[in-house]
Amino acid sequence: MTGTTVIGPAPARPQARGVRVRGLRRAFGDREVLRGVDLDLAPGEFVALLGASGSGKSTLLRAVAGLDTEATGELDVPERRAVVFQEHRLLPWTRVWRNVTLGLSGRGRDLRARALQALAEVGLAARADAWPSTLSGGESQRVALARALVRTPELLLLDEPFGALDALTRLKAQGLVARLWRRHRPAVLLVTHDVEEALLLADRALVLAGGRIAEEFAVDIPRPRPVDHPRFTALRRRLLAALGVGADLGDGDPRDGTAAGRTAPEHTDDTRDDPQDDAARQETR
Amino acid sequence: MSPPAVTSGVPADLIRGAPPTSPARLLAAAAASGRRFAGLAVLLVAWQVCAAQGMLGAATPPPSQVLATGVELIRSGELPVHLLASLERVAKGLALGLSAGLVLGLAAGLFRLAEDVIDAPLQALRMLPHLALVPVFIIWFGIGETAKVALITIGPIFPLYINVFHGIRGVDERLVEAARTCGVTGPALVRKVILPGALPQILVGLRQSLGIGWLSLVVAEMTATTSGIGFLVTDAKEFLRTDVVFVVLVVYALLGLATDLLVRAIERKALAWRRGLVAR
Question: Looking at the partner chain, which of A92, A103, A271 has a beta carbon nearest the beta carbon of B182?
Answer without folding.
Answer: A103
